[in-house]
Design brief:
By secondary structure, the chain is mostly helical. The protein folds into 2 domains: 13-42; 50-108, no CATH class. It contains 5 helices and no strands.
C-alpha cells in the first residue's frame, strides 16, 4: 500500500546527465534541454506509429474541446462521440472507440479472431 512501482529507470549516459544536472542544481532550461535530448532517443520508436500519433492527437482534441462553448460538439467533429449525460468513463470509452476506428483500418485485415 502506498508503493510506487517505477520499474527500471533509464541508465543511459543522456539520462545520467539529466540526473547530474538536477543534483547540481542546474538551471531549469539546462535540465529541460538535457531531458529533451535524452527523451528524443527514447521516443524515436514511435515516429512512424500511427496508433501513437492518433492517440496523442485525440488527447489534444480533449484540451481544445475544454475551451469551447460546446465541448461535445467539438469532440463529435473529430470523431469522439459522447452520450447526452457524459461522465469521465464515457469520455475515456469514446476516445478509445475513436482510436479503435482510426487504427482498425490499418490492422483489421490481418486480424482474424478465433
Amino acid at each position: 500500500m502506498g508503493h510506487v512501482r517505477l520499474g527500471t529507470l533509464p541508465r543511459s549516459r543522456a539520462w545520467k546527465e539529466v540526473v547530474g544536472l538536477i543534483t547540481a542544481g542546474a538551471d531549469v532550461s539546462q535540465i529541460a534541454n538535457a531531458t529533451i535530448r535524452a527523451a528524443d532517443k527514447a521516443f524515436s520508436f514511435v515516429l512512424n506509429d500511427e496508433g501513437y500519433t492518433e492517440a496523442v492527437w485525440l488527447m489534444t482534441q480533449l484540451a481544445i474541446a475544454a475551451k469551447k462553448d460546446n465541448f461535445s460538439e467539438h469532440l463529435q467533429s473529430v470523431g469522439i462521440n459522447l452520450p447526452q449525460d457524459t461522465s469521465l468513463p464515457d469520455v475515456a470509452a469514446a476516445v478509445t472507440e475513436a482510436l479503435d476506428r482510426k487504427t482498425r483500418v490499418k490492422w483489421w485485415p490481418f486480424f482474424r479472431p478465433g
